[in-house]
Design brief:
alpha+beta, GIY-YIG endonuclease, 103 residues, four-stranded antiparallel β-sheet
Length: 103
């Protein structure tokens, strides 16, 4: 489930166009989500993305980002994470075979 915006390249010129609003954002390495963050009124989406950019997130493999404006950013992030969890099976739901030599 993507966020509202298209994916943008994780480059300074593209981040400069990110909104100065609260909301959620996702950082990607190609098609894989690396993290989902929250931006508040004080730390806008653009400010948070710039902090990641200036902190060297490209060295961690970030290639793209998305965002969605929301006044209830934390709730939007939790909803997004719940939807992602429904798409992928939980490792905890898979039976673990007994260790070798265990009776």
């Amino acid at each position: 489930m993507p966020l509202a915006s298209p994916k943008y390249p994780f480059q300074q010129f593209a981040i400069a166009g990110a909104p100065e609003d609260p909301g959620v954002y996702a950082l990607y390495q190609d098609a894989e989500i690396l993290c989902i963050g929250v931006a508040t009124e004080k730390e806008t989406i653009r400010a948070r993305l710039l902090a990641h950019f200036n902190g060297g997130a490209q060295r961690c493999g970030v290639t793209h980002y998305q965002w969605e404006i929301s006044r209830a950013a934390q709730l939007k992030r939790e909803e997004y994470l719940r939807r992602l969890a429904q798409q992928y099976p939980s490792c905890e739901s898979q039976p673990v075979p007994p260790a070798r030599g265990a009776s």
